[in-house]
Amino acid sequence: MAVRSRRLQALDVGFLAPRPGVMRRMGRLARQQPLGVFGLVVLATFVVLGIFGPSISPYDPRELRVGPPLSEPSWDHPMGTNSLGQDVLSRVIAGARISLIIASAAIFIGATMGSFLGILSGYYGRWVDYLVQRSGEAFAAFPGLILFFMLRTAFGPSVKTIIAAIAIAALFGGSRLLRSATIVERSKAYVESARAVGCSEHRIFIRHVIPNVLPLTVVLMSGALGAAILAESTLAFLGLGVEPGTPSWGIDMSGQNLSFSRLGYWWMVVFPGMAISLVVLAANLLGDSLRDIWDPRLRR
Question: How far apart are CA 80 and CA 97, in angstroms?
């Protein structure tokens, strides 16, 4: 009886133990996912620069001859100047805005809709699955650059055209992978148990299947964010993006800057390229960490 009494007291203490606070839980997650914290900090900095970049830049990113042309990195110009005498640091900071606007809008429109279509086709199957998958196969056979040229011809060169092209390219990017994951989820025992107790297919889809596929969706969207930034930079590098002179990482890596970099003026293309690489890496690291945190199968 004494042993049983001690066990009951221990259970009572366990039940009455207070739950750790929010800050304590966040600190524990930060210690478990240091790479995710790094990605979050980098992306948060990227967002701040995108919103307040032109205001906090040391110089006007469009102003000519704020310093000697082709000047090496110094205290006055930590990243040097380009061939027009523009401050490279100011242009790198201001260039985050155009990448943030285009990538965020394209992912919100394209990747979100594409993920939902993939989950929908994997769960309901039949004609829904046939329509979504055949549409994705037809789109995959169509070059994305040709699509951008068509949209550019129809609507003219603008930020909205770039957003539309990248969003359409991301629409079917991860739908097949999400379809496969949804097919696996709908065949599990908990879905059959939910059907056995009388749950409707709509309730099972919303309350059970989507939460279990959501971690994979987050990972795909984080990868799509990096791909959208790369796509915008590539179009700007080819002269098909925003207007010339606009602070953009892709523009700063092309044209005369690229030619001068081959003559030893490396800072004009290295620093914009580092900004692109760092943001893409941060997006992927944050997506992997969120998958580890949200996926019940990966929790400790």
Answer: 21
For residue range 85-103, list pLDDT tens digits in order. Answer: 888 888 889 888 888 888 8
What SS3 class is residue 87?
strand
Residue 209 tokens read as: 């299947």
**What's the gap between Cα 79 and its chain centre?**
26
Q: How confident is the model at residue 37 (pLDDT cuts 50, 70, 90)?
A: confident
Alpha-carbon Rg for the chain in angstroms: 25
Write the burial class of residue 207 (CB in 10 Å: 0-12 exposed, 13-18 middle, 19+ buried).
Answer: exposed
pTM of the predicted model as reported, rounded to 2 decimal places: 0.77
Residue with tokens 């939902």: 116
Which pair of tokens denotes residue 232? 């915008």
Could you give the residue ranges of the DSSP H alpha helices within the chain?
2-16, 22-32, 34-56, 88-106, 112-124, 126-140, 144-155, 159-171, 175-186, 189-196, 201-204, 210-237, 249-252, 255-261, 267-294
